[in-house]
Design goal:
about 20% strand, alpha/beta, 18 strands, Rossmann fold, flat
């Protein structure tokens, strides 16, 4: 697709109050794909949310801002002290918690000083960190983590615990800036509440890459990276979303107007064409009956043909202009057409028993109270609770992948076809294409119909014919939904395990819209309160210190 020509960059004057500045920065991947193109932007010392589609380059740009990646051209102005927490923490075999938080060199320097070292380099490292072990204990307590020593093996901590530790370490630093890349991905609701509290208390500059709408609503500015271009708007995510929804509505209205104008204009042009044809026919009859010299008749005929040709060209030009206006209006509409995701066989009639749990005990946590629950009809059950309370295990039991604990008894009876979708859609065969997977499942839809429906989901021919392992997170979730609902025996109970964890905001909204009209039953495990609210749950099952509680609509308790 042809690129719109870009005007030459204007001389850039940096805002001296900014805590981070980009001056004509260009960043490209080794394969030549452009992630940032001549970006100039000042980040004021406030809270900024950085958003964009998966693959837009948000994490890469954050690494550039942190000084971890070099730029192809341009300059990044940053303070001497800036803390950065990546999306994926490096914890190689043998790593300790001190390695994860980057304090191992300080601890080693302190140990050498205690052993009698007088090396100035050791004293430089230890300066300002003489009480680091006491600070470490207070940091763990504040982050509600176990009282681990810095030498504790990193592999013994969960992903959520490592994330919280890295965040706590970054937040305690007295730096001018803080860069966080998807910090809430592995956090439960209590930990997200803690993170929100710390972010609101942070007084330096902050840049947050996230799809967590609650966190983004705590930001003072939203910057979007799209097609290598960075645009910013003051206000939180809700304000940004409202503005863009209004723009989208205006674009839709402009497209509807252009289509109406085209229909009216084409009707008028057809009427002009018919009138010209009728006039030409009358003139031809008059000429045949007129007693005029052949040379004069020839001249009139030539003039009439020339006039008809000019009229035809004017109509062609007018029709082309009307088509161009519609195409230009359509290009400004950033919305994909809807698609009926579910089929009639996915519906669950009201009153039909779907699942029955009787004194069901999960293998973890030990001694946890049993669960008794019966649900009928197209219900929507939200399961909430802290990491480690057994939510994913319960979904696996409902899917029939784990049998109930025979030692403690209990019943898990699910009476409709199910499909379990985890946050990575790991059931998709990685080497098969999506189309191959659907055809092998015995789908009732013909290949042409499958291709058409998948295209409406945003999965074109290049994606449905590629190995599913190459799909992005959002594409995999849509592919897994299509496989669950368009297979030979469509799922009437969807089990969703943190489906939004690795999706961008646009993909989350698309998933919400796709599930809005699903006529079957849903069981959803999520810490994303905005996502749960969008699904309008009818029942809740939440974990508290004394066990599982049933609610009409459940929201995980705040810390």
């Amino acid at each position: 697709m042809a690129q719109t020509p870009r005007a030459p960059a204007a001389p850039y004057v940096s805002d001296t109050s900014a805590f981070l500045s980009l001056r004509h920065v260009t960043v490209a991947l080794p394969d030549g794909r452009m992630l940032a193109r001549d970006i100039s932007h000042d980040f004021a010392p406030i809270r900024h949310g950085l958003i964009g589609r998966n693959g837009a380059g948000k994490s890469v740009l954050l690494r550039v801002l942190a000084g971890e990646l070099a730029v192809q051209s341009g300059q990044v102005l940053r303070p001497a002290r800036i803390a950065y927490v990546p999306q994926r923490l490096a914890a190689p075999p043998g790593a300790t918690l001190a390695d994860v938080t980057g304090i191992s060199p300080i601890l080693l320097a302190l140990s050498r000083i205690e052993a009698g070292s007088s090396d100035p380099a050791d004293f430089d490292l230890a300066e300002g960190h003489w009480l680091i072990r006491q600070d470490w204990a207070r940091m763990l307590a504040d982050a509600r983590l176990p009282d681990w020593p810095p030498e504790h093996p990193a592999h013994e901590a969960s992903g959520g615990e490592l994330t919280r530790l890295a965040l706590a370490s970054a937040l305690r630093q007295d730096g001018a800036g803080l860069l966080l890349d998807e910090p809430s991905n592995h956090l439960d609701t209590r930990a997200r509440d803690w993170l929100m509290e710390k972010i609101l208390a942070w007084r330096g500059g902050l840049i947050l890459v996230s799809h967590d709408r609650r966190l983004l609503d705590a930001m003072s500015s939203i910057a979007e990276l799209d097609g290598g271009v960075l645009t910013a708007q003051a206000g939180n995510y809700t304000a940004w979303r409202t503005h863009h929804d209004r723009q989208a509505a205006a674009a839709q209205a402009a497209l509807a107007h252009a289509r109406h104008e085209r229909a009216t204009g084409l009707r008028s042009l057809r009427q002009q064409h018919d009138a010209d044809q009728q006039r030409a026919a009358r003139n031809a009859r008059s000429a045949r009956n007129a007693n005029q010299a052949p040379i004069l008749l020839g001249m009139k005929k030539a003039n009439a043909q020339a006039h008809a040709g000019r009229s035809h060209q004017r109509r062609e030009d007018a029709a082309q202009a009307l088509d161009d206006a519609v195409r230009q209006a359509a290009a400004r509409v950033n919305a994909s057409p809807g698609v009926a995701l579910a089929l009639p066989d996915t519906a669950v009639p009201p009153g039909r028993r779907v699942l029955h749990l009787e004194d069901l005990r999960l293998p973890y946590p030990p001694q946890a109270p049993s669960i008794t629950l019966s649900l009928s009809g197209p219900f929507r059950l939200a399961i909430t609770g802290p990491n480690g309370c057994g939510k994913s295990t319960l979904l696996s039991m409902l899917a029939g992948r784990i049998a109930p604990n025979t030692a403690t008894g209990g019943t898990c009876d699910v009476r409709v076809p199910t499909a379990l979708l985890d946050q990575r859609a790991s059931d998709l065969p990685p080497t098969q294409s999506l189309l191959q997977t659907l055809l092998a499942s015995g789908s009732s839809l013909a290949e042409g119909e499958l291709r058409s429906r998948l295209a409406l989901l945003g999965l074109g021919a290049d994606l449905v014919d590629a190995p599913t392992a190459t799909l992005s997170g959002g594409e995999r979730i849509k592919a897994a939904l299509a496989c669950a609902l368009w297979r030979k025996e469509p799922a009437q109970l969807l089990l969703l395990d943190e489906p939004t964890n690795h999706l961008d905001l646009a993909s989350i909204r698309a998933l919400e819209q796709a599930l809005a009209d699903y006529p079957g039953a849903l069981v959803v495990v999520s810490h994303d309160t905005a996502f749960l609210e969008a699904l309008a749950p009818t029942h809740g099952l939440s974990w508290h210190q004394d066990g599982w509680h049933q609610d009409d609509i459940s929201v995980e308790p705040a810390a």
